[in-house]
Amino acid sequence: GEPKVCAEDSPTYTFSLKNSQTKPVELKASIDGIGAQISESEMTIMPGGTAKISARLDVEGLAKEAQVSRKDIEVELLLDTSGSMAERVDGSIKMDVAKAAITNLVNNISQLDIGMRVFGQGALCEESEQLIPVSGLDIDAITQKAGTLVPKGKTPLGQALGASAEDFHKDRRKAIILISDGKETCSGNLGVAAKELASKGIKVYAVGFDIDEEGRE
Fold this sequence. Notes:
Blueprint: E1 12-18, E2 25-28, E3 36-38, E4 42-45, E5 50-57, E6 68-80, E7 88-89, E8 92-93, H1 94-106, E9 109-119, E10 129-132, H2 139-148, H3 157-164, E11 173-180, H4 190-199, E12 202-208, H5 213-216
Parallel strand pairs: 6-9, 6-11, 11-12
Antiparallel strand pairs: 1-5, 2-4, 3-5, 7-8, 9-10
Helix pairs in contact: 1-2, 3-4
């Protein structure tokens, strides 16, 4: 929904192809998944030769209007940045997957009070830290802050959930989106913390990775 979220004005890309074989190569070029104008779709590359193909991508219509616009709810992203988030799942680093999910989320929101708190940035069981207050929507601040985070510490999940409960201010519906691999490694109790939040009318949505059974109750 924001103009600066759109693709660049001239999305033209050039690909260089080299024939390292001992005989000519007949080539047919195409691009799938998006409309494109290709400079040359059929060619012959001689042995040791190089050919270049330019493709102008048709990005019109790809930047969709935002799908979420709510004035009656406050949301806080609660992001796990502990050492375990450096592990891989399905070939991707968990932290990278989490950052991509956050970027995708905030770029599909047009109006929502949303903040961000992180935990696991210390070497031990340091308390969580609110990086973005739950006030309005600052896409740049959220994406830039998330982009600088490096997984390194332990996982004080219980403390982080309890602290998030104090980050809401307005008399509105409240929700926490927890992005974590769900293993409490400090002295907190995830199940107890979640129940306390529920008693205050704060819903907790766990996304991204497995949450331990205690936290599911």
